[in-house]
Write a structure and sequence with these properties.
By secondary structure, this protein is mainly α. It has helices at residues 2-24, 34-70, 82-106, 108-118, 133-150, 154-172, 179-185, 192-198, 203-206, 216-221, 248-253. The longest helix is centred in the first third of the chain and has 37 residues, at 34-70. The N and C termini lie far apart (43 Å).
Amino acid sequence: MRASLVWGVAIVAFALGFFVLERLFPLRRAARPLAGRLLVNLTFAAVAFVTVSLTVRPAVQATLGWTGQATFGLARLEAIPPILQLVLAFLLMDITFYWWHRANHRIRLLWRFHNIHHLDPDLDVSTAFRFHFGELAFSSVFRVAQIALIGPFPGSLLLYETVFQTGTLFHHSNVRLPIPIERRLVRLIVTPRMHGIHHSQVRWETNSNYATVFSFWDRLHRTLVLNIPQDVIDIGIPGYAEKRDNALGNALLAPFRAQRDYWYRTDGSVPMRSVTKNKIKQLAP
């Protein structure tokens, strides 16, 4: 219990740190007032915390206990040295999260709920907490399959989840890093500019850059896009870009209502980009 409290306090401290940094060194200009967005996103965070406590966490702990008793999972193969078991578990956790994220964009039912994360008209560290309770409830099924398949040791899982959470806060943040530094970082990990493209209103840009920790999963799957300048990116979903769409009640109920076309604005236009989808080796400002 005490360890969980310390872990939670550390994550909040990281979030507050990024919150301060993005005020000092903003990457993108804000489209909406901060106060209203914070109210919505923090409310989502509170509901998400309850949902995770009731569904995801018990499912993970139960499955982790089962894999420990049954000595089951790819990361528990006796032929693999302990240090490699840790590395394997970390990599398998990250690649399976890549596939899960991609599934949330490709499967209509899952997208109804994951879409709420993308409706945020701005992208900053508070967006990292904006996940619909329905998406988190669905994810508990995925987490059971993930943990059962991989069979990570508790320490391995804690290490990955710590990196996962801090990485999520980092790449959702609106912190402007110097281009030379970010170009080096993005060779290995997901960065704010890379993930900013994933939240674009242009459809093929949204359907790119799915990785959470290691950026090379997108390179391997040919879903990496890096050449879009941040100042030309409109954040959000075109079909749900009206102010009322991001009101708390509408955002919570949106997955349960008839869906509008996500990619057409209310005036009938579709956000486009003249840049091609070719694999890009550079990172634009």
